[in-house]
Design brief:
The chain is largely without helices or strands. Helix content is about 0%, strand content about 0%.
Length: about 45
């Protein structure tokens, strides 16, 4: 159960501009990497 009857679930997301403090703001997907993880994380993300 996510909330009690009559309750609410609030999801807050950071605005993309707030995540670009270094000035590297661009649209699109970023290439992912499992570098630094153990061998158990060798498969790409499912999406």
């Amino acid at each position: 159960m996510l909330s009690y009857p009559g309750g609410a679930l609030i999801v807050q997301a950071m605005h993309p501009a707030a995540a670009c403090a270094a000035g590297d703001c661009r649209d699109g997907w970023r290439a992912g990497s499992w570098a630094g993880f153990s061998d158990a994380f060798s498969d790409p993300a499912p999406w």
